[in-house]
Amino acid sequence: MTRAPLLEIAVQDPGGARIAFAEGADRIELCQALEVGGLTPSVGIVQRVIEATGEAGRVAPLVRPRPGGFVYDPDEVEVVAADIRYLSSLGVGAVVIGCLTVDGRVDAATLARWRDAAGPTPIVFHRAIDAAADPLAALDALVAAGVTRILTSGGAPRTIDGLDVLRTVVTRADGAVEIMAGGGVRPEDIAPLRRAGVDAVHLSARGRSEDASPSGPGGGARGYDVTDPDVVRAAAEAVRSRAVS
Questions:
Q1: Region entry Disordered: which residue ranges (predicted)?
Q2: What is the pLDDT of residues 58-85, one digit of tens each?
Q3: Which CATH number does the domain housing residue 62 bear?
Q4: SS3 category, 194
């Protein structure tokens, strides 16, 4: 029988964090703006999530200053470093980052800058690896840099379509770094991801709020994303099922 992977849920607010832990998540990635892939959460959100859950060590904030690609200018590098230092001071379980060079390699200099800013706080490298020119070379560079875990879809828009690459990545990592599968994951995808040997599974478990109040000309569409407890529960059941062999 394959061992059960850890379950990580991406959430955007204290309510989502409470739901994720109540329904069986092992940890959360905390961010804002999941609709653009996630951005750095505000100071207030991070503080309130930690206060509301008492689980700083199971919270991994994303530190991404803007949407778009993962090549950062010097100002952006320093913004991320400042955010990392602050988040690390709160005792979070990890910080989630990603950086590439213009030719698609891991930006080793920027990664080292952020590693120094994190101090003892573990570093997670997000799906920037899926945009790397050579993901396996990127994996080797991240292991050498002391990254704790890597989030990847196997280079596919949805993780379930990147299974062959994920298997190769798991074999190449050989336990030197945690491989976490994420990107469009649904609970029904978890069994084949377990068979691929990943160490953890990541999903956002998003639903839509029933808020029908008018948002006005400057507020965008009505409603907003929320964490769906049914999806989290189904994912937790899938990662812990004894039926996978």
A1: 202-228
A2: 999 999 999 999 999 999 999 999 999 9
A3: 3.20.20.380
A4: helix
Nearest residue to 147 via CA among 174, 170, 172, 179: 179
If one counts the domains in the chain, the total is 1
Q: Is 1 inside any structural domain?
A: no
* Spatial distance between the Cα atoms of 141 and 208, rounded to a whole number of angstroms: 38
Reference 205, options 49, 25, 2; nearest CA is 25
Q: Does residue 195 sit within a domain?
A: yes
Residue pair 152/181 in contact (Cβ under 8 Å)? The answer is: yes
Q: 């207030």: which residue's tokens? A: 44
Global confidence as pTM: 0.93
117: containing domain: 6-240
Is residue 77 in some structural domain? yes
CA dihedral 238, 157, 33, 182 (to 10 degrees): 30
